[in-house]
Design goal:
This protein has an 18-stranded mixed sheet that branches. It is built from four helices and 18 strands. By secondary structure, the protein is of the alpha+beta class.
Length: about 260
């Protein structure tokens, strides 16, 4: 029997497997497990699977497998879910923590406010960004632990599932890319994101939020404190020398796979 927890961060939903004390899903089966159980018709249904385990040098280790079975470097909303679960499970305590990911160690400040667990993530944002013209769009590319393409638009009412794949699979992105469409409004942002590995639009993408805010700030479109509205809810970004993403997550239910 495999125990799991279903969580979401801003509607970006995950199946979490706790491997803090022992491996639950063998390494060779993790990819297939994600493909099977992320299926919304025949499985549990999720954008990805999170595996939480011990780290030799950090407070926790997080791995994420997308719904297509591919392993991603990291995930912002996934990290919020890992923090929420790990506080409840007693794996970590409030304060400053460090989480090991394939994108490196992510520092986080964890606090409790109005019965909610909030995490402020120090995002690994690259110094430089690139600019391309693709599919008749001006595209800005930035790595925030995972690759992101950022496109500023005047209207978010777009057929994203038709437009985004052409950019997501363009050869200019050797690893592929997530694709974000951004509307600047009164110094804040509204975004829609097509996620690599999910191969569809998701309700929210934490790394996408960070990438959009960072690019918009560098282009002078927003200040150093940015509210970013996604379909799933609101996330906050704070920018100084670093880029900090603040948000929370909810546990939906727990269950067992026979």
């Amino acid at each position: 029997m495999i125990l799991f927890t279903k969580l979401h961060g801003n509607g970006n939903d995950f199946i979490l497997i706790d491997e803090y004390d022992q491996e639950v899903i063998p390494e060779a089966e993790k990819s297939a497990f994600a493909k099977i159980f992320c299926n919304r018709r025949c499985g549990i249904g999720a954008d990805g699977v999170l595996f939480v385990s011990r780290s030799r040098h950090a407070n926790l280790r997080m791995r994420i497998f997308n719904s297509d079975g591919s392993e991603a470097e990291m995930c912002g909303n996934g990290l919020f879910c890992v923090v929420k679960y790990s506080i409840e499970a007693g794996h970590i305590v409030l304060g400053e923590i460090k989480i090991e990911t394939l994108a490196g160690d992510i520092k986080s400040e964890v606090r409790k406010q109005a019965k909610e667990i909030w995490a402020k993530l120090d995002m690994p944002v690259s110094e430089a960004f690139s600019e391309f013209e693709l599919s008749d769009f001006e595209v800005f590319a930035l790595d925030v632990g995972v690759p992101h393409a950022v496109i500023f638009v005047d209207d978010l009412d777009l057929p994203i599932s038709e437009i985004a794949p052409k950019i997501r699979f363009d050869p200019v992105f050797p690893r592929g890319t997530n694709v974000n469409f951004v509307l600047v409004e009164h110094g804040d942002l509204k975004i829609r994101t097509y996620e690599r590995g999910v191969e569809d639009e998701t309700l929210s993408c934490g790394t996408g939020v960070a990438a959009c805010a960072a690019i918009a700030n560098r282009l002078g479109k927003v200040g150093d404190k940015v509210n970013v509205q996604t379909k799933g809810g609101l996330l906050r970004v704070y920018i100084n020398d670093n880029v900090f993403l603040e948000g929370t997550a909810e546990i939906v239910y727990g269950g067992a796979i026979r």
